[in-house]
Amino acid sequence: MTRTDRQHRLLPSHLVEPGGSGAPRPRRTARDWVVDTTLFLLAAFVGLLAADASAQYTSATVTLLDQLAGAAACSALWLRRRWPVGLAVALSLANAVAPVAAGALLASLFSVAVRRPFREIAWIGALAVATSVVQVFVRPDPTTNAGLSIALGFILVLLVTAWGMLVRARRQLFEALRERARRAESEAELRAAQAQRLAREAIAREMHDVLAHRLTLLSVHAGALEFRPDAPPEQIARAAGVIRDSAHEALQDLREIIGVLRAPGENGDGARPQPTLATLDALVDESREAGADVVLDSTVDDPAAVPAATGRTVYRIAQEALTNARKHAPGTTVTVTVRGRPGEGLTVDIRNPAPAGPVPPVPGSGQGLIGLTERAALAGGRMEHGPAPDGGFALHAWLPWPS
């Protein structure tokens, strides 16, 4: 398929400029038939008026020739979609000697103005005006002043071409709006795909927030077993149980994330519900069972009423803070404070003092807090963190809670 063929397939019939080399002839629609028939009838009506006016001062032979010329000119209008320029030129020349062709000429000029560029419209309109002037002297009307006839012909040509150009501009505007709508739809699809990709990247970054908590428990208790092989059997059993449970939970979390990252339609069954503010108590209990000293102070009466996305963000913030406290300040008391109500937002404060003694270095990239700061900003809130004046660590976050 050539470029010309593609253009004729994509453009509606009223915007196709026929007459090109090898260009297919557009099929007339019901609207095209109505327009063509209307123009034919109008041209025939104008031709009859002109023939009746000229019959009063011409011979019967000339009148018959005028009628034949008018019928041919009106019939030629059915070719205006295929050869608009050639038809307009031919009718302009016929109009110089046959006033009955004036109606068909105006219809052809309208078609040229609708379908062709301004340069062609200008010289064809000038030709039509010139032949109208010639007609005034070749076929003068005794009842009308010559100057008035010339002015009337010029005004009619100008009005018809201006009307056609207005229709052309209107159609081009509609086509541009359609193209803009199609482009906007394509851009919306691209933005949706980009948003999906960014969401998946955010979920991939969240793997750190989800798995770091579990893996830290594994590291701490495995290190305790390594450095305290002479610990009482009860402590060893407890540490082994924590390691087993943390490994199981880490696998469950990893399976959940992989399920979310699957393409649409590939999600498997058995996906666990996402954590919310209502599950914050369970996170604190889990940290206490692992040996951490955590104090939870929450004044939210109904945690289930908090929006799921906001509650999930609070959960991840608390999870990261507890993980960092366990790694960098073991044995200290971590205080988690949650305040808020609908319309005022939700405030989270997490603090822990400095550790009493030296702490073995634990590897960490610091990406967890950075990711949570970005996450809070995307949720419409903010998060700040850093060393406290007493040497400990403090984290403060505020998230919106619509009323």
Highlighted features:
alpha+beta, Heat Shock Protein 90, five-stranded mixed beta sheet, 11 helices, 5 strands, 62% helix, rod-shaped, disordered N terminus, Sig_transdc_His_kin_sub3_dim/P
Category by helix and strand content: alpha+beta
Shape: rod-shaped
The largest beta-sheet arranges its strands as 1-2-3-5-4
Report Rg.
42 Å
Coiled coil: 167-198
GO cellular component, one term: membrane
Protein name: histidine kinase
Transmembrane segments: 33-51, 87-114, 121-138, 150-169
SSE layout:
Elements: H1 3-10, H2 30-54, H3 60-76, H4 84-95, H5 102-115, H6 118-138, H7 146-227, H8 233-261, H9 280-289, E1 293-298, H10 308-328, E2 333-341, E3 345-352, H11 367-378, E4 382-387, E5 393-399
Parallel strand pairs: 1-2
Antiparallel strand pairs: 2-3, 3-5, 4-5
Helix pairs in contact: 2-3, 2-5, 4-5, 4-6, 5-6, 5-7, 6-7, 7-8, 7-10, 7-11, 10-11
Protein described:
A hairpin with a 3-residue loop joins strand 2 and strand 3. The protein is rod-shaped, with a radius of gyration of 42 Å. The N terminus is likely disordered. The chain contains 11 helices and 5 strands; from the N terminus they run H-H-H-H-H-H-H-H-H-E-H-E-E-H-E-E. Among the domains are: 141 residues, no CATH class; 127 residues, Heat Shock Protein 90 (2-Layer Sandwich), CATH 3.30.565. The two termini are 60 Å apart. It is α+β, with helices and mostly antiparallel strands and 403 residues long. Strands 1-2-3-5-4 form a 5-stranded mixed beta sheet, with helices on one face. Keywords: ATP-binding, Coiled coil, Kinase, Membrane, Nucleotide-binding, Phosphoprotein, Transferase, Transmembrane, Transmembrane helix, Two-component regulatory system. Its EC number is 2.7.13.3. It catalyses: ATP + protein L-histidine = ADP + protein N-phospho-L-histidine.
